[in-house]
Amino acid sequence: MAVARRAAPGHALLYVPGDGFLYRLNPLTKLTLVLWVAVAAFMLPTAGTWAIALFAFVTGVLAGAGKVFARRLLFTLAPLAVALFVVHGLLVDHGGRETWGPLDISHDGLAYMVRIIGRIAALLSGSLVFVTTTHPARLLKALDSHGFSPGLAYVIASPLLLLEPFSARARAIREAQAARGLDLDGNIPARLRAFPALLMPLVTLALADIDHRAQVLDGRGFRACPRRTVLDAPADSDGQKWFRRLLIATIPLVIAGRLLWL
Amino acid sequence: MKLETRTLVLIAAAIVINVVVGQLAVWVKLPLYVDAIGTVLVAILAGPWAGAITGILTNLIWGLISDPVAAAFFPVSLVIGLVAGFLARLGWFRSIGMTVAAGVVIGILSTIVAVPIIVYMFGGVTGAGTDFATAYLLAVGQELINSVAVANLGTNLVDKIVTCVIAWIIVKRLPQRFSSGFAFFGYSKAQ
Amino acid sequence: MALISVEHLVFAYESDGPAILDGLSFEIEAGERLAILGGNGSGKSTLAQWIAGWLPRGTHKAAAGSVLVQGRPWSEVPVRERTELVQFVGQLPMQQLSGFAFTVWDEVVFGPGNLALPAEEVRRRAEEVIAICHLDHLRDRDPFSLSGGEQQRLSIAAALAMKPQALVLDEPTGNFDPESRDALLTQMAGLPRDLTTIWCDVALLPPMALATRFLLLDEGRIVLDGDAATLLAHPRTREIFGLPAVAEAALQLREQGLLPAEGPLPATLEQALPLFGGLAVEGHR
After folding, report:
1. What sections of chain C are H helices per DSSP?
2. Looking at this predicted complex, what is its ipTM?
3. I need a labelling partner for A139 at 20 to 30 A (CA). Which of A191, A193, B30, C125 fits?
């Protein structure tokens, strides 16, 4: 991925257990909201995106996920802000230039920076509201009960479940190799040589039992019937269904509004 | 299009490989991403569509567990999977030489797809080391898009070549009982 | 009609490779408790897959002969029906998990759910197998966070939830310590009476506790088909597995002339006591 990863993910989900209005909303409703926010983040002017970002942030804090929000927003936005300041505030040929001490700053560039940060903050906060209040298991059950393809559901659920045991193996392999003298802190060629010794055992492990697992799934009737019985699917209501339809209906309006106004 | 169960299990395993190996690269402080090895692997074994699905879902799952904004780069992963699959169909993964060439092609195409995302969504920056190169190029007078493209192309090329080569090595070492189960792999078997 | 009928089965994984199964013929009746024993490389895991319908698949087909389930070859049985005929539980616990369930309850419910059974039926089955396999206190746990023994119990529960006619187990206690193994054996004793059970193993004792009929497999061929006494008396048994301690002791006493040369070898202490009870051994060097 081209966007920097500050630190390796913890592999705990971003989900924060809780019990509020947001948690009780059907995951599909929340997903639709994320979609709406994604469109709005690109279409609305800067004030709009910052408003969304702020609203989502406050919602997150009220839901009890303030720490996750703060951490993710900081880690993502801080380096971007610095880079944007240098690239657009200083370097790119925007108008409205002014000299602040030793720097030749462009006001238009700064405005652009604020707009981008606002957009990303809105996108990030919006997604975080969804991710922190929705456990993947519930999302999958919601999709399942609405006829989502079980094959696709499997391909989302299985990696989420396998990541933790797998990362544990990765750590164990790394320790074992380090104990055998593998140099992980040397110069780049040394590290490049060390990499396969860590990678190969992992890959072999991941691919080892694919045949068997596929058989197990088929043996349990996976995709044998066109429909599945889903127990304890997340509650859905007519109100939410209409709300979702409304949200989707407003998306073309938002896009049209943007194209006509600006 | 209904994929075989075995292909689905392969895709799930490949997504795990993508994420964990990408994480491994961070541990070892490698200046590369190498988070698409699984995607290329699936593309070689099961074709472009399976590869594309692997790529897209890797980004989605990454978004669920770590960084929702990185999920915005799913078109890049999609392209990696698609192109690798089509090149595999043409037999580009039969030899190490052609595999490197495949890496070059994928590196270029994935940069082409990544640049608009970086420029229009992120204002041209990634928050990573490539921003220094971008800034430098801007300072010597290049346009924004060109700077971003060139700055990211270098890393991306090396990254994708290494990714393809590693995927090729893995596939070559797979036991015959395993790879013979994937019909699409026939296009990549050495003649 | 037998539940499973193996007829002159010859099979190899690679078309030019050695035959893993070399002309096997036998039948399994409904309700039988069968143990298939063999050392590594004897072909028992492969045979287990044939009985469970996991073979033939893809390019792997019999070189000769066939396996019939209720009179039909596996290839003619639709997928849905297969799930209710024979279920398979393999050796490595983590391999048996669906990878689709975030809790033990969801794992058990996965199979019946796939068959689109009514919700009530799904719930009933799940509760039943959770009780049989003592998983009640683990309901909300992540299957991948369980111990090996717990995962294996979960796999058996998930298999039972399909209400199969037969259950094939391939070295189910393979990696367990003795305590976990005994726990699993206790569970197995609680399985439904009419469930046909086929237990494949490299060790003698675990299946001996449960099975009434034994097949000894050696290099892809059936060397023995009989009850426990016949099994213990066969020379290959001792060569491949070693005998249970009491049987070994009885055998050596027999060789010393201290026990009659005829009659079955004891498998358990209860069976041995009458034999050993009358021994009079003079001071030995």
Report:
1. 44-52, 79-83, 104-114, 119-132, 148-160, 178-189, 205-208, 228-233, 235-241, 245-255, 269-277
2. 0.88
3. C125
